[in-house]
Design goal:
The chain contains 13 helices and ten strands. It has 386 residues and is an alpha+beta fold. This is Phosphatidic acid phosphatase type 2/haloperoxidase domain-containing protein.
Length: 386
C-alpha cells in the first residue's frame, strides 16, 4: 500500500504545471501548484518530500516463534505453512500411520484415471520390455557407457548375526553408469536427509528439520511396500533372466527369495521409488524453488536409464515404483505441516496473524478405551480409527 501511494504521489506531482520549482517543492507548497478546486488542502499538514517517504521493499517470508525458531513460512501469496520442531526419531512411529492411510489416499475415485494409466503403461512397457532393454544397452555401448555398476569400498566393517552376514560398508561409484545408479542408493538419500537435519539444527529451521524427518518417514514406508511387492511377484532381473522379459515366480518362500535375491526382486523398482519420494518431499516443502522438480526428475531419468543399461531392472518395473514413492512422499508432507489461514497484509511480514491450527493426533494416540457389556462379559475395548 505504501509503495502504491509513492507512485500515485509521484505521478500527481509530475502531472502538475511547471512553476519553477522541483517536484518536492510542489508537494511542500500545494497552494502554489494546485488549482482552486484543491486550495482547501492548504490547511492540511505539509507533506513530506517524496525522497523522505520510507518505502519498505523487503517482505519477510518466514517468522520465528517465541523460542527463536523459524516455524512459519509464506511460500506464495496467501499460502503460509507452519512447521513444528519434530521430535527425534518420531518419524519412525508415523510409518504405521502412513501405511494405514495409503489405501484411502491412493484408491480415491479421483485417482481412477491415474490408476488405469499406471496399469496400462505397465502392461505396454512389459510387452516392449526386451526391445527397450536391448536398445538401452546398445545405446550405452554406442556412447561408450560401460554397463557395469561397480563401486569402490571406502569403509567396510564386518558384522554377522548368526549365519547372516550384515557388514557395514560405504561405497562410492567408480564409473559414470555407476554414478547414475548411485542416485538411487540408500546412502545418497541418507546424506540428503542428514544435510537437512544438520542445516535445520544450525539455523533453528523447523522446515528443514521436518523435511529430514519426512524423508526418513517416506523412504522407509515406500521401502516396506516395495519389498512386500517384490516378495509377492518374484520377477527376475534382466541380467539373470532365463527368457525374454524374465520369469515371474509368484509368492516365493522367504528362504528361496534370500537364496538368490536377483532372481526375484525386479518388480517394482525400489531405487526409483526412493528417489521419487525424496524429490516429492523436498519439492512440496520448498515450492518457491522452482528448479527442484525439473532437476530431480532429470536425475531420476538418468537413474532409470542406468538400471536398464546395467540390466538391474525392466522398464515396466518403473511406473508402480515411481507412483509409490510419490504417494508416500505426499502423505509424509501432508502430515508434517499445517496451513496457516491468515489474511494477507502487505504492510506486515507474511506468516503472522492467526495461530496455527491444532495438529492432528498421531495414529498411536487415537485409540480410545470404552467399557462394554456383552452378555455375561464385562470389560473394556480399545478402538483405533484411521
Amino acid at each position: 500500500m505504501l509503495l502504491s501511494q509513492f507512485f500515485i504521489s509521484a505521478s500527481f506531482a509530475h502531472s502538475l504545471p511547471p512553476s519553477g520549482g522541483t517536484a518536492d517543492s510542489l508537494a511542500l507548497n500545494p497552494v502554489a501548484a494546485c488549482p482552486d478546486s484543491v486550495a482547501a488542502a492548504a490547511a492540511a499538514p505539509a507533506a513530506q518530500p517524496l525522497s523522505a517517504i520510507p518505502v519498505d521493499t523487503t517482505i519477510q517470508h518466514y517468522t520465528r516463534d517465541t523460542n527463536g525458531r523459524i516455524s512459519t513460512y509464506t511460500v506464495a501469496p496467501g499460502v503460509t505453512w507452519h512447521y513444528d520442531k519434530p521430535r527425534p526419531f518420531r518419524w519412525a512411529l508415523h510409518i504405521p500411520r502412513d501405511l494405514g492411510q495409503f489405501p484411502a489416499y491412493a484408491f480415491r475415485r479421483e485417482n481412477t484415471e491415474t490408476l488405469v494409466g499406471l496399469a496400462v503403461s505397465s502392461v505396454v512397457l512389459w510387452v516392449a520390455d526386451q526391445a527397450i532393454l536391448d536398445w538401452s544397452q546398445d545405446f550405452g555401448r554406442f556412447v561408450g557407457l560401460t554397463p557395469k555398476s561397480t563401486q569402490k569400498s571406502l569403509v567396510y566393517i564386518p558384522f554377522r548375526i548368526g549365519s547372516t552376514n550384515l557388514p557395514f560398508e560405504f561405497n562410492v561409484p567408480d564409473n559414470l553408469n555407476s554414478t547414475f545408479y548411485y542416485l538411487g542408493d540408500g546412502w545418497t538419500h541418507l546424506t540428503v536427509a542428514s544435510s537437512f537435519w544438520i542445516y535445520g539444527g544450525i539455523k533453528k529451521d523447523n522446515r528443514a528439520l521436518q523435511t529430514s524427518s519426512q524423508l526418513g518417514e517416506a523412504i522407509l514406508s515406500t521401502g516396506l511396500v516395495v519389498q512386500g511387492l517384490k516378495r509377492l511377484t518374484g520377477r527376475q532381473s534382466p541380467y539373470v533372466a532365463t527368457k525374454d522379459r524374465g520369469e515371474w515366480h509368484l509368492f516365493p518362500s522367504f528362504t528361496r527369495y534370500q537364496s538368490f535375491v536377483p532372481n526375484y526382486d525386479a518388480f517394482p523398482t525400489g531405487h526409483m521409488a526412493t528417489a521419487m519420494a525424496t524429490v516429492t518431499v523436498i519439492a512440496d516443502n520448498y515450492p518457491e524453488y522452482h528448479f527442484i522438480r525439473p532437476l530431480g526428475y532429470s536425475l531420476i531419468g538418468l537413474l532409470g536409464y542406468s538400471m536398464l543399461n546395467n540390466g538391474v531392472h525392466w522398464a515396466s518395473d518403473y511406473p508402480i515404483g515411481v507412483a509409490l514413492g510419490y504417494a508416500f512422499g505426499k502423505i509424509a508432507v501432508r502430515s508434517g505441516r499445517t496451513r496457516v489461514e491468515a489474511p494477507i497484509d502487505p504492510a506486515k511480514p507474511q506468516g503472522t496473524g492467526l495461530a496455527p491450527p491444532r495438529r492432528p493426533q498421531p495414529w498411536y494416540r487415537k485409540g480410545k478405551f470404552a467399557p462394554y457389556n456383552y452378555g455375561p462379559f464385562t470389560g473394556a475395548s480399545w478402538s483405533l480409527r484411521w
